[in-house]
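Fig. S4 source data, part A: sequence.
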Amino acid sequence: MTKFRAKSRIMIVDDHPMMRDGLTMRISSQADMEVCGDAATENAAVELAKQLCPDLVLIDISLREGNGIELVKRIRLLNATTKMLVVSTFQESLYAERALRAGALGYLNKNESNEKLLEAIRTVLRGDRYVSAETTQRLVSQALGKHAVMDDPIETLTDRELEVFRLIGDGVSTSAIAGQLFLSTHTVDTHRENIKKKLGAKTGADLNRKAIQSMLENG
């Protein structure tokens, strides 16, 4: 008698409906997986995760409201058994380690193939890490005490500062950043000042230029 094996239940968090639909189609075509729900914002994802208790959550960094890295932290606190895989277009060197520190088990670029996506999902479901060879080497070097020199000052930004910096590069106003990240405008202004100091920006306009340039280079 064949023993029935339950499918892995996967939740998708992405603010683009077409991306959610595409991921759902790819995952649902697999005999061992099913999509149990999806969300477009940080708060909606937290509430859905509470209800569904999925085996795995796929999370984009850029959300309509909130931020993927913060969402990883919140779901980690909510349910330590739920595994998370960040799937984003953003530069892995800037975000992969942040995602892992926050509690995700893997990071995958959205431009990777369908086969890579399924490989990443199954790897994370097993409880193993999934990142590129470059990130793996960097993590190994750090574990051996060979701390890499941060050539890019952007790497010195905190998770929240990096998100504010990214939104500045997108041309989002201070008040809109505050609303999207659930912060006060005073807090956003404080982050802007800290970012200016870390990146050596002398004025607000200089900071804006650096942010736009970073977005053009890193996505």
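Fig. S4 source data, part B ends here. The longest strand covers residues 33-39.
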